[in-house]
Design brief:
The chain is mainly α and 239 residues long. The protein folds into two domains: 95 residues; 117 residues, no CATH class. Helices cover 55% and strands 3% of the residues. It has eleven helices and four strands. The chain has a two-stranded antiparallel sheet. Strands 2-3 form a two-stranded parallel sheet. α7 crosses α8 and α9 crosses α11. The N and C termini lie far apart (42 Å). It comes from Chlamydomonas eustigma.
């Protein structure tokens, strides 16, 4: 389990309109041939194979038909709890790469599975799930709040600066109130400073610049700045 706590009340989707924030399909995706989409024996696959299947499609940039995705989500929704945390991150990341938006029931089950999963979500898998969820507008998820609390109580679980930078970006997309817990700035900012201090000067500058470019709110930028435990030299971050 990524965080040990009482079950967090799941926020229902209600009548919100769900949509992908990316807009229309990317030109880099190639459609899978209709006969192959229909032939693929999804019903005979185990959950691990189903995760590998969609991951393979995303890796090679071949997008199955909507009817394929309909069968895929129907088969996987009642069995998502059989997937390991890393596999869950692969599935949502692959759906995002293939620019497919699952229905509300599937998203609700996926969120509940991630939140209450008995397995261990490592930091990378957790951040990847958040990043996938962040591409969907009109939905409310519980899992981001769990990751927020984990970053607050166990920041050392995040071993890379870009994990925390991505975490802040995703939490901002999910409208998680970063400022409700006064200690959050101190704890996470201190951890980011520790990770920056282990980098070379050039690597640290590159990490901070990349993070600032990706940040979309002043809250995230202020959070990133609290992690600077040394003087940055060279490029002016304001230019």
């Amino acid at each position: 389990m990524f965080i040990t706590s009482a079950q967090h009340p799941f926020s229902k989707y209600g009548k919100n309109v769900l949509e992908l924030k990316s807009g229309r399909l990317s030109a880099s995706l190639r459609p899978m041939s209709a006969p192959y989409s229909r032939w693929m024996p999804l019903q005979n696959m185990g959950m691990g194979q189903l995760a590998d299947c969609i991951h393979s499609c995303a890796t090679v940039g071949v997008r199955p038909s909507n009817s394929f995705f309909s069968r895929y989500t129907t088969l996987t929704r009642p069995r998502l709890h059989h997937l390991r945390p890393r596999q869950l991150s692969v599935v949502i990341r692959s759906m995002v790469a293939l620019e497919y938006l699952p229905d509300e029931d599937w998203l609700s089950e996926f969120d509940s599975t991630c939140f209450s999963h008995p397995g261990h979500f490592d930091a990378q898998s957790a951040v990847q799930v958040l990043a996938g969820m962040a591409t969907i507008s009109g939905a409310s998820f519980s899992f981001p709040q769990a990751v927020y609390l984990t970053a607050l109580t166990d920041p050392c679980r995040f071993t890379k600066y870009n994990q925390l930078a991505c975490l802040l970006h995703c939490l901002g997309s999910h409208n998680v109130p970063l400022w409700d817990e006064p200690r959050f700035l101190e704890v996470v900012g201190s951890r980011m400073g520790q990770l920056l201090a282990k980098m070379s000067q050039n690597d640290a500058q590159h990490a901070v610049l990349s993070s600032l470019c990706r940040s979309s709110t002043m809250q995230e930028i202020l959070m990133l700045e609290t992690g600077l435990s040394f003087e940055l030299e060279g490029d002016d971050l304001t230019n």
